[in-house]
Design brief:
Length: about 130
């Protein structure tokens, strides 16, 4: 199946400008062109864009993404380096998850603290209302 740049943008969740930018900096191979000279993206292109999007979500710098993209053209000879890039990124993601988990624990603690205060205030209000009746 082939997709126009607008369709590829919609399916990938990226903007048309981002697709052009990725092509310009070498993250995305120039797509095929249709008879009118317009970009024509394949399912493989969309799969690659999905992978690039995940890499960006992990916080991988564009320069590392570019290195990975260049290495994939070298085939099996580059498996070791590509694996190393992904292994390093995985370690970074795990560190970030640990940081976020610590933040979540603090938020949970504070929310529980405010729940207790609200319960105490509600109990005090009920006692005050009963005493006034």
């Amino acid at each position: 199946m082939s997709y126009s740049i607008a369709q590829a943008a919609e399916r990938s969740g990226l903007s048309v400008d981002t697709l052009r930018y990725y092509e310009r900096i070498g993250l995305l191979d120039p797509p095929a062109r249709d008879s009118g000279g317009r970009r024509s993206y394949s399912d493989d292109d969309l799969g690659w864009l999905g992978f690039l999007t995940k890499l960006r979500l992990t916080g991988m710098p564009i320069r590392m993404m570019r290195e990975y993209a260049q290495l994939r053209h070298r085939g099996a000879a580059s498996y070791g380096r590509r694996k190393a890039i992904l292994t390093d990124q995985r370690a970074s993601v795990r560190e970030r998850i640990a940081e976020l988990q610590a933040c979540l624990e603090i938020l949970d603690y504070k929310i529980e603290h405010y729940d207790q205060i609200e319960q105490q205030m509600t109990a005090a209000d009920l006692i005050h209302e009963e005493a006034s009746a």
